[in-house]
Write a structure and sequence with these properties.
- By secondary structure, this protein is α+β, with helices and mostly antiparallel strands.
- The protein folds into two domains: 127 residues, endopeptidase domain like (from Nostoc punctiforme) (endopeptidase fold (from Nostoc punctiforme), Alpha-Beta Complex); 39 residues.
- 48% of the residues lie in helices and 15% in strands.
- It has ten helices and six strands.
- The chain has a six-stranded antiparallel β-sheet.
- α1 crosses α10.
- The longest helix has 17 residues.
């Protein structure tokens, strides 16, 4: 007998939601280890305008290299909605700030060191160029686009995340393949008449498997919401 595709699809949907939220371990009160010390990464192989890609377990984080160990990247962050103090905003984004930024749809395009951006992960350079072929802009153009956008910005899990930012800067058009995969999964569940049951199963699975915490309760809130909006 064939296995029921609904629980499998629900599990995949949960994974994609976590992917889009970009949850990652952070220091400063979140219980994580501090980022690698300066010099951990060999920045001599990076060129201004390069698209840096850091694969994680459930998501990929993206940034544009600006030179001199600086990376521009988009991060959900609640703080820019309350203050314009650059010193406060420039501090490492904690998980609390990140989750609240996702909920309130606020973010900042910030400039961090390579160490703070990658946070110990491996870095791929211009890995997406093969997908865009002749659409790659000049390196200086990509870097200048990133620099002009630095500051507070709106955030959307589906329409304006870190991948949209880097593809706009380097290829001229905001695209997110992670979002496309997520939407395909949502459509697959919605097409099944038991989609409501699937959303409940995902919510329960996220709590049972991942524990009751902001990073896990957020998907349980969004899953039924997305299914209800699309229904």
């Amino acid at each position: 007998t064939m296995k029921n595709p609904v629980p499998q699809a629900a599990s995949l949907l949960l994974e994609k939601l976590l992917l889009l939220v970009h949850v990652r371990p952070l220091p400063a009160g979140s219980g994580g280890e501090p980022p690698p010390a300066p010099g951990y990464y060999d920045t001599s192989c990076f060129k201004r305008g390069d698209l840096l890609e850091v694969p994680r377990t459930l998501f990929i984080h993206f940034g544009i290299y600006l030179g001199e160990n600086r990376v521009a990247h988009l991060m959900p962050d609640i703080l820019p909605a309350f203050t314009g103090d650059r010193r406060q905003i420039q501090q490492v984004v904690t998980n609390k700030r990140l989750i609240l930024g996702v909920i309130t749809k606020t973010a900042s395009i910030r400039v961090d060191t390579v160490e703070d951006f990658a946070y110990g992960g491996s870095i791929l350079v211009n890995h997406m160029d093969r997908l865009f072929q002749d659409q790659v802009l000049g390196s200086e153009e990509a870097a200048c686009r990133a620099e002009k956008l630095v500051g507070a910005t709106a955030y959307s899990l589906l329409w304006n995340n870190c991948e949209h930012f880097v593809t706009y800067c380097r290829y001229g058009a905001p695209v997110s393949f992670q979002t496309d995969k997520f939407c395909e999964t949502v459509k697959m569940i919605i097409r099944d008449q038991r989609s409501v049951l699937a959303s409940v199963l995902v919510g329960l699975a996220s709590i049972v498997c991942l524990g009751l915490a902001p990073s896990t309760t957020l998907p349980t809130i969004f899953i039924p919401f997305f299914l209800w909006m699309a229904g």
